[in-house]
Specification:
Elements (H helix, E strand, L loop, with lengths): L7 H12 L5 E6 L2 E6 L7 H7 L1 E3 H5 L12 E4 L4 E4 L15 E2 L4 E7 L2 E6 L4 E6 L6 E2 L4 E7 L4
Antiparallel strand pairs: 1-2, 3-4, 4-11, 5-7, 5-10, 6-9, 7-8, 9-11
Length: about 150
């Protein structure tokens, strides 16, 4: 992709990236071209959000190399390959800290892919128990990044 314009293939790759991620709205302007995509009702489909981001830790425990988390915790997984950021800017406070209560639509981190910043939502209501990735670290698709103890769980 050239700095001052987008090709048709670039636009197709962006659309595929948006379709495979969990954010609800995307805007990009390059030169004279502006791309604006929005999911129906302004939110990711519930099934996609559940599959892409949050999976019960009990299921994850069966996966090899998974981090340990509190029983009943829900894992937030990276929906894409990219760079993990805890805050919206280097001088800004992190989106979440361990012990912080979150709502399903709370942004917990950003994953950067090809200079596109993708906000990742908690996907569940609860308390952050673990953050498994350091700020600025590369993440893989489906990698566990954060654990949340769902509201009402012991």
């Amino acid at each position: 992709m050239r700095k001052d314009r987008l090709s048709y293939d670039d636009v197709l790759r962006i659309v595929e990236l948006v379709k495979s991620s969990r954010f609800s709205e995307f805007r990009l302007k390059v030169g004279e071209i502006e791309v604006h995509l929005r999911r129906a009702n302004g939110a990711a489909p519930p099934a996609a959000a559940a599959e892409a981001g949050a999976a019960p830790a009990a299921e994850g425990a069966a996966r090899r190399g998974e981090p340990a988390a509190a029983p009943g915790a829900t894992f937030i997984r990276s929906p894409m390959v990219g760079t993990f950021y805890r805050a919206p800017a280097p001088d800004a406070p992190p989106f979440v800290e361990i012990g912080q209560r979150v709502e399903p639509d709370s942004t917990v981190c950003i994953i950067e892919v090809m200079k596109l910043m993708n906000s990742i939502a908690a996907g569940t209501r609860g308390v952050v128990t673990d953050i498994f990735v350091a700020n600025g670290e590369a993440v893989e698709f489906d990698q566990v990044i954060i654990a949340i103890r769902p509201e009402g769980a012991a």
